[in-house]
Automatic annotation (TrEMBL):
GO terms for cellular component: endosome membrane; plasma membrane; synapse. Keywords: Cell membrane, Disulfide bond, Endosome, G-protein coupled receptor, Glycoprotein, Membrane, Receptor, Transducer, Transmembrane, Transmembrane helix. The chain crosses the membrane at residues 20-45, 57-79, 99-117, 138-158, 192-212, 254-275, 287-309. One of its GO terms (biological process) is chemical synaptic transmission. G-protein coupled receptor for 5-hydroxytryptamine (serotonin), a biogenic hormone that functions as a neurotransmitter, a hormone and a mitogen. Ligand binding causes a conformation change that triggers signaling via guanine nucleotide-binding proteins (G proteins) and modulates the activity of downstream effectors. HTR4 is coupled to G(s) G alpha proteins and mediates activation of adenylate cyclase activity. This is 5-hydroxytryptamine receptor 4.
């Protein structure tokens, strides 16, 4: 008996340590996501140069969506994961789930709009870009980023359209979790899984791949033209137009990295989302949880991608974090002394990816 009690006590201690470690890890993810996205929003509000670029309106709206994920979705998911119970009732379970679908879908739609903006900026002439991306069109695209997800989140989920035909399975899962008051079960039927995944991930992903493929082809054509001119000795220095194209291409690479991180984070979830209804909902909940939190982590990645890859954002971040000292904005990532102030052109250009 004493050995049995000691074994139980040891098991409980291990479980407690695992819960504490998990709570600390999830809390760090939430805090970093809130901090990073707030930093992006403040930078765009304080820096007039960032506000001049149309793409940055999509970026600040994306940051707002990611901030809401960290404030209204992730905390409840963390509490449910660490306690093993849902303590907020069935109605709020539906609201939380709807917000989850709404905000994550809004994120990828913002990335899709940013990719289209880059396509017009790089693959079209400047006059065509200004004609295509008018303030009214930008406003319409931003509205669509927030309104379209509503039709696959609050509308069907609050009406329980996602559970049509699988009501018995949902009830069994809820009872297995204890009761409707202590579990938040969200399962989707095949039509909802296909439609939701297509709208939230696969269609926007396809548009982004096409846009970046066209951008890559245009950039490579431009590079070959410059190399031909330089070999002929007629282009000792790149003209202004060529400089503009280089800046726009670097901006596209930055956004492609952001898009790639989103795909890596969310692709496992959306693949599982489609497969699960066709294999009788046999995917373990632990795998669902892992894929879901991998997706949440993406909401905290974007600000750090901007900080490391975008010189304009990095300078704005430095000014904010250094209490508005403009010296940091002028020096950017360069060191202080006179021997270090002049950074190499390659280094500066390598991070000077203005998101125009």
């Amino acid at each position: 008996a004493p050995q049995l009690d000691a074994s139980i006590s040891t098991g409980q201690m291990i479980d407690s340590l695992e819960t504490i470690a998990l709570s600390i890890f999830l809390s760090l993810i939430i805090i970093m996501t809130v901090f990073g996205n707030l930093l992006v929003m403040v930078a765009l509000c304080k820096d007039r140069h960032l506000r001049k670029k149309k793409t940055n309106y999509f970026i600040v709206s994306l940051a707002f969506a990611d901030l809401l994920v960290a404030l209204v979705v992730m905390p409840f998911a963390a509490i449910e994961l660490t306690t093993g119970q849902w303590r907020y009732g069935e109605i709020f379970c539906l609201v939380r789930t709807s917000l989850d679908v709404l905000l994550t879908t809004a994120s990828i739609l913002h990335l899709c709009c940013i990719a289209l903006d880059r396509y017009y900026a790089i693959c079209c002439q400047p006059l065509v870009y200004r004609h295509k991306m008018t303030p009214m069109r930008v406003a319409v695209m931003l509205s669509g980023c927030w309104l379209i997800p509503t039709f696959i989140s609050f509308l069907p989920i609050m009406q329980s359209w996602n559970a049509i035909g699988i009501e018995d399975i949902v009830k069994r899962r809820a009872l297995a979790g204890g009761s409707n008051d202590t579990s938040c079960v969200f399962l989707v039927n095949r039509p909802y899984a296909l439609i939701c995944s297509a709208v939230a991930f696969y269609v926007p992903l396809g548009l982004m791949v096409l846009a970046y493929q066209r951008i890559y082809v245009t950039a490579m054509t431009h590079v070959r033209q410059i190399e031909t001119l330089q070999r002929a000795g007629s282009a000792p220095q790149a003209p202004v137009g060529h400089s503009r194209m280089r800046i726009e291409t670097k901006a596209a690479k930055t956004l492609a990295v952001i898009m790639g991180c989103f795909c890596l984070c969310w692709a496992p979830f959306f693949i599982t989302n489609i497969v699960d209804p066709f294999i009788h909902y046999s995917v373990p909940w632990q795998l669902w949880t892992a894929w879901l939190w991998l997706g949440y982590i993406n909401s905290g990645l974007n600000p750090f991608l901007y900080a490391f890859l975008n010189r304009a954002f990095r300078r704005a971040f430095l000014v904010i974090l250094c209490c508005g000292d403009e010296r940091y904005a002028r020096q950017g990532s360069c060191s202080y002394g006179p021997t270090h102030r002049a950074c190499s052109a390659a280094s500066v250009n390598g991070t000077s990816m203005a998101l125009r």
